[in-house]
Amino acid sequence: MTRNLLRWSVPLALAAVLGVGAAMAATSLTRGIATVKVVQNAKYGAILVSSSGHTLYRYTPDKKGKSTCDATCAQTWPALTVKKGAKPTAGGGAKAGMLGTIKRGKALQVTYGGYPLYWYSGDPKSGAVNGEGVDGTWYAVSASGALVKHEVSKGSGSTTTTTTTSTTTTKTGWG
Question: What is the DSSP letter of 51?
């Protein structure tokens, strides 16, 4: 009996701790006004980040003005939001004219070039880009609003592109 209790209580405790951590991080990225700025990343070049320095991502199934990441997806990929009535601001390098919002529950999700922005719960600190290329659908965003799908090559100023193809489709329940 004790063994069964331990077998179920450890994963539940871990899930609770991770959930609280994600909720705290989400709260820190939704207070007041969101500032979107551009930073130079050694691996991916100039990318968008939040005011706290967390890399901002786009989800390729999203359309302009429409988020398709909800439920389980939104737990891993929380939306960058502002409270209703607030507007996002452009920091260094970001283009103010590209910032906007769409309705998302009781808040507004920040958009860039019309596309919803998210951060990745798997980025443990500002400057991390662990979400880049996840599932072939999540990519960092450049200052122009384009998806960053390649690493910046050192030295020549050229870029290196990695192409991945898949013949199978897996439904993850994220959207």
Answer: T
Closest CA to 141 of 44, 65, 19, 23: 44
According to DSSP, the β-strands at 89-90 and 35-41 are parallel
**Number of other CB atoms surrounding residue 128 within 10 Å:** 16
Cβ atoms of residues 46 and 40 within 8 Å: yes
Cβ-in-10-Å burial (0-12, 13-18, 19+) of 120 comes to buried
Lookup: tokens for 135 = 């599932």
Domain residues of the chain, as ranges?
2-152
Reported as a single tens digit per residue, the pLDDT across 98-154 is: 999 999 988 999 999 999 999 999 999 999 999 999 999 999 999 999 999 999 876
19-29 as b/e: b if 16+ CB within 10 A: eeebeebbeeb
Q: Is 69 helix (H, G, I), strand (E, B) or coil?
A: coil
Quick one: three-class SS letters along 71-112?
CHHHHHCCECEEECCCCCEECCCCCHHHEEEEEECCEEEEEE
What is the pTM assigned to this prediction?
Answer: 0.72
